[in-house]
Fold this protein.
Amino acid sequence: MARTRDEQGRRILEAASELLSTEGASALSVRRIAAAAGCSTMGLYSRFGGKDGVVDELYAEGFERLVDGMKANLPTDDPVADLRRGAACYRDTALANSTHYMVMFGGAVPDFVPSDASHELAHAAFDGLVAKVARCTAAGLFEGSPDQITELLWGAIHGLVMLEIVGINPLMSDPGARFERALDVLFRGLARG
Amino acid sequence: MARTRDEQGRRILEAASELLSTEGASALSVRRIAAAAGCSTMGLYSRFGGKDGVVDELYAEGFERLVDGMKANLPTDDPVADLRRGAACYRDTALANSTHYMVMFGGAVPDFVPSDASHELAHAAFDGLVAKVARCTAAGLFEGSPDQITELLWGAIHGLVMLEIVGINPLMSDPGARFERALDVLFRGLARG
DNA sequence: GTGATGCTATAACGTCGTTATTTCAAGTGT
DNA sequence: ACACTTGAAATAACGACGTTATAGCATCAC
C-alpha cells in the first residue's frame, strides 16, 4: 500500500516518531508535532485527518520495526534455536522501542483505535512468527498447530516484555534471565514427547 | 494501611471507580469525578493531591479485586488444579475489570506512575500467586523455584489477557480455549521429570 | 467580639484536540 | 490585463483538560 506522501507529510511523521521515542506518548500533541515539523496544526488534519491518523502511522511503524527486528537473523538448520533467537529479537526490539510498543499494545494514546489496515499489519507480524514455529512443527520438534502455538507463545512473550517495560518486577530479578527461563519452560512444554 | 477517609473522600473514590468501569480511563477527568461526587475540583486536591492521587487508589483497587478474585476458590488436595483455577480466576477478574486492568498495566492514564505503596500492593498480589505455586513445588510436581516459576507464569498469563483486552486476535480463535491451551503448555513445561 | 486558621468554591492560566474563519496565491474566463 | 473562483495554508476560536491562585466563609482561640 505505502501511500505516497509529500515532503511535509514525511516531515510530520518523522517529527512525531522522534517525539514519541524521546519523550513518550504524552508528548504527542498536535501542536508539538506541527511545530517540530515546521507547519501549522492544520497540516496534520489535511494529510492525516487528525491526531489519530498520525498515531496510526506510528502504530504501523512499530510493527514494521518489530517485523524487521525479527527478520534480522537468518535461519539455520536448527529451527528451535532460530525461534528462540527470534523471540529474543522480539524482546530486544520491543525494549528498544518501548514507547512505540506502549502505543501498539498499552493504550498509551487515549481513545486511539488502530485502523483496519494497521490491525492487519499486526496480524502480518504474527504471521512472521508463525513461519518460524511451522519449521519446528514440520521437523517434528513441536506438538500442535503452528497457529495455536504461535498465539500462545506470542502472548507469553508479550506479557513478559510488557511487565518489563512498565517496571513491574516483584523479585527484582534480571529480566533477561527471566525471559530465558520462560522460553525454557515454554519450549519444554511444546516439545514433542 | 487503609487510610481513614471522610464521607466526601469515599464519594470521590466511588464516583471515580464508577466512571472508570463504565466509560474507561479517558472519562477520568478531575471535573467529571468532582461533579459525580458532588463537590468542586478542589475536593480532589485537598484529599488526594490531584488526579494521580485518585488514580493511585483505583490502581490499588484493581489489585485488590485481582487478589480477591483469586482467593475466591478454596484449596483442594490437587495443587496443580488449584493453580490452574487460580489462573482462570485471574483472567476472569481481569476481563471483568478490564478498564482497571489497563490503568494498572497499560498506561491508560497518561504520565501516571503508581506510588511506592501501590507498587508494593502489586507485589503482594504476586505473593498470593507464589503461595499457590509453592504448593505445587512442595508436592514435587513442579521443578524450580516458586518465585521464578510464578514470575514467568504471571508474565505469560498477563500477556494473553492483555492481548485479549486490546482485541488483538490473529486467528479469531476463542480466547478462553487459547488460554487453556497456554496453561497446558506451561504446566507441561513446568512439570517435574 | 475579633483576628487567625483551614476548608470550600470560583475563577483563571496554559495546553489539549478539533473546528471555523480568514488569508492568500494559483488558476480561469473574457 | 483584470475580475473572479478555487483550494490549501495559517490564524483564531471553542470547549475540555489538569492545575494553581484567589476569594468566601465557616470554626476556633482568646
Remarks:
- Residues 29-31, 41, 45, 50-51 of chain A lie near DNA strand C (CB under 10 Å from a C1').
- Chain A has nine helices and no strands.
- Chain A touches chain B through 46 residues (CB under 8 Å).
